[in-house]
Design brief:
Order of helices and strands: EHEEHEHEEHEEHEEHEEHEEHHH
CATH superfamily of the largest domain: NAD(P)-binding Rossmann-like Domain
Number of helices: 10
Shape: globular
Helix content: 25-40%
CATH architecture of the largest domain: 3-Layer(aba) Sandwich
Low-confidence stretches: none
Distance between the termini: 60 Å
Largest sheet: 7 strands, parallel
Strand content: 15-25%
Number of strands: 14
Radius of gyration: 20 Å
Structural class: alpha/beta
CATH class of the largest domain: Alpha Beta
Length: about 325
Amino acid sequence: MPSTLLITGGCGYLGSRLIRDLAQHFAAPVTIRILDNIRQGQIHALMDLPVQAAYEVIEGDLLDPRILRLALEDVDAVIHLAAVVRTPLSYDNPAWLEQVNHWGTAQLVEACLAMRVPRILFTSTTAVYGPDGPHDESSRCLPQGPYAHSKLSAEKVILAARERGLQPTILRLGTLFGLAPITRFDAVANRFAYLAGVRHPLTVYGDGTQRRPLVHVADAAAALIQLLKSPPADSIYNLVGTTASVLEIVHAIHQTASTAIVEFADQDIRTHISFAADSAKLRATGWQPQVSLTEGLAEIINHFTGIRRFMPHRSELDEL
């Protein structure tokens, strides 16, 4: 294990869980250095950190070369999480996605080479494969939308650096779900858990048979730690705990919130597309998911208490 480890995006969803879990896996003292622009006000990701590790925080931007050189001083390995994250079907801000996810990664790679950092672990996305599947690591990549394109471009930059001495490991993640110190609620599983928690209807677009690759945030952190401790032979691994249809996600919600109301709509045709990926290659290294979909969603729903469903009368709705 490294003595100094840099985590880019350490105040984000996965980062806020990873920086805590890492501290439990070191036999010798370690410094976990966190680089994050903290633009989302995620300062509380840094509160109440474990005492087993020493933490250093650099508030700065991935696109600032001066900040990168400072952050990489005496670093043994980098876990690169910093990114503009979007659902695979989002098409907003393509220039920003390309700038941060692709060119920001390219700048980080160049800085790693200049500072003689030997290893980089990068969190990509199964969205690089495009729809359908299940896709394995040998599948052709046909990304749809600017987010997936920007992540695939970043992968290519990282893999090209192998010829210059950098040892890369790329994890193509399914959509994260479950509770972390910083939790995102824009993707379907966590969004449904939030809606069930506040007693709002769950809207299913289409017939609900469309599938999504998912992985609990703790299982994703565990995979990164495992691959950091035992560098793998290959460079690319899918990281998926389960692949579930939208209706299966609803069923998992109902295990905890049995009265959650489900509504169906035909709008937003893009959400009817299925995505699926296979993680057999990563499981062969010894990693196995530990948190089920039902358990992961329950831990979110159970944090919403004292909220009852509000149903205005039809007359009140008409007045609005």
